[in-house]
Design a protein that fits this description.
The complex is a heterodimer of chains A (about 375) and B (about 140). Chain A has about 375 residues and is of the alpha/beta class. Chain A folds into 2 domains: about 120 residues, Thiolase/Chalcone synthase (Peroxisomal Thiolase, Chain A, domain 1), CATH 3.40.47; about 230 residues, Peroxisomal Thiolase, Chain A, domain 1, CATH 3.40.47. Helices cover about 35% and strands about 20% of the residues of chain A. Chain A is built from 12 helices and 12 strands. In chain A, helix 3 crosses helix 12. The longest helix of chain A is centred in the C-terminal third of the chain and has 17 residues. Chain A is globular, with a radius of gyration of 19 Å. Chain B has about 140 residues and is an all-beta fold. Helices cover about 0% and strands about 40% of the residues of chain B. Chain B has a 5-stranded mixed β-barrel with strand order 4-5-6-8-7. Chain B starts with 16 loop residues before the first strand and ends in an 11-residue tail after the last strand. At the A-B interface, helix 4, helix 5, strand 5 and strand 9 of A face strand 4, strand 5 and strand 6 of B.
Amino acid sequence: MTGVAVAGVGMHPFGRFEDRSITDMGVHAVRGALAEAGVGRGGFQAAFCGTAYGGVASGHKVLGRLGMTGMPIVDVEAGCASGAAALMLGAGAIGAGQFDTVLVFGIEKMPKGIIRSSFFEPWQEAAGMAATPAYFALRAQRLMRASGVTKAHLADVVVKNRRHGADNPDAMFRAPVEARDVLGSRVVCEPLHLWMLCTPNEGAAAVVLTRADAGAGAVRVAAAVLRSHLPGAVLSESTPMAGLADDTVVPPTTLAARDAYEEAGLGPGDLDVVECQDTDAARELLSYEELGLCAPGGAGALLEEGATVLGARIPVNPSGGLLSKGEPLGASALGQVVELVRQLRGECGPRQVGGARVALSHTVGRGANAGVVILTR
Amino acid sequence: MPVRDGLFSAEAPPRLLGGRCGSCASHHFPRADTCPYCSSQDVAPVALSAEGELWAWTAVTAAPPGYRGEVPYGFGVVELPEGLRVVARLTEADPGRLHAGQAMRLVVVPLHADEAGQTVTTFAFAPAPAGAAGGDGT
């Protein structure tokens, strides 16, 4: 199979932009990626656009504004992993020899407040069952019981990521916070306080992929994997109404990570930097275990030993994560990829992970959809 | 009137309406014509146990989208003897008053009044000793 290289990346900052449409933001990110790649009109043979709330023909609207249509443009919805799904399709198409160069981008402009999801039936909403943070809270409580994680650990994840995010000009929240303030913010759903939850917001990110033989020394896509859930787990991101009393069901993140490690011929011990889904602080800790950064039950200890802060053994979310950037669903996975490409190129300034050669991006959300992308240089 | 037909029985005490798979022997909820765990269509309707143990819990403090009832309300997972974990509202909205493994009992609780003034109800779990077993909660 042909190798896949990243020829260029572009990004519209994540935040709230009253005067910009989702299309405006997409145009900004796509222009940036195409310019970096030196690719113009006619220079790519397909485009894949990740978005969950963008609506009909979101990708066409962006490329229409740029006068760059005619090729297949495919909108991809996979919840929080929409961008990872788009990347999987784009990289797979190049790998299979279908195209030489493809554009992959993700765009989103989220409503404010708790996300209203068409996933839930109207009766579930009426019964108060569409309380997304409550599902996060139940998962957090189970992690606390299974892994000895405490509320102090949850606060420390927020402190870590917000400190990282202070150096990211594309992040929404750039002021560092202290643990006592995190624990002092209001309880949304016990044990999760407001500052332990990421903010749905707006943004866009774009990546140009080419056949790897076209770019010596470029960042390569060593794996781009999307997996859904296996049935059975009651607190899976699939958000079922019931599940089995069975704690051995392998979660979608682990499924995706295993496939990605195999595809890349690498393991968790090879990683230099990770961007993972910190929808809430507990979700980041769970990802440590599900991605194999530590053994099951070891997430709290890994955080406590400081292994996941910038400058340590395996920095997680040097961009500040979703807790600093906010989460525009369709753009969040490719936002991670843009960050990691820049990390591998050594372009990240004060938040640079020194000598990074292997990077992993992880997104997971409703569906369930779990995306894992491994990049190497 | 129930928020949706087919979720729980109307008689007292109420029971959740699920299914049992003849192929993998697992139970499921809500009732389906295909086993969600092994894809078999050899499923039979069953009324699930009305009592179980608390497995996870929290409270919802702000009204989620499309919800017109009161807040806060309890929310959690109860494990039934059939080997099934059910996501449900809890009648106890103070997480500090609940504990793992606590005995819970199914009840029916009011949500809101519909356009005709009728009370819309749904299922919930209540701590067993103090729970209003079989009551419709209205």
